[in-house]
Here is the input.
Amino acid sequence: MQRAALTSALCYRDAKAALNFLEAAFGFELTMLIEDNDGKLAHAEMGFGDSLIMIGNEWSQMHKSPASIDGFNTQTVHIHLDADIDAHCERARAAGFEILMEPEDQFYGDRTYRCRDPEGHFWTVGAPIRSVSVDEAEATSGLKVVKGWA
Here is the structure.
């Protein structure tokens, strides 16, 4: 797999467990696994479509899983699908993700849901369901599109 110019990396208390629940919930595929001499995960990468995510353990006082810092997060990871979002949500729920927002149609034409993994990382998952013009999006949302509407 060719590397993207930008890749997210998440840390977990139990990164090996994270590999399993990310595969079960989202269908991510383990593409790289590096262990130290004691069999502890040193680095892992999981592929999804044309993207990848890096998974690792906590490695300093400033690099922690949300599970180690009272659930606080500074980022959300977004997954873009071309599949049945409702079925995907049920798969995530069955794998142990907490569903924070059930699948819902959005003003911009996607159907999305939000979830939290067992260590507290937030994920948003969306799939396009219809094309929406700028005028329609603005009228529906009350927001002003300034740049970049596709």
Observations:
- The chain has a mean pLDDT of 91.
- The chain is about 20% helix and 35% strand.
- The beta strands are 8-12, 29-35, 41-48, 51-57, 76-80, 98-105, 110-116, 122-128.
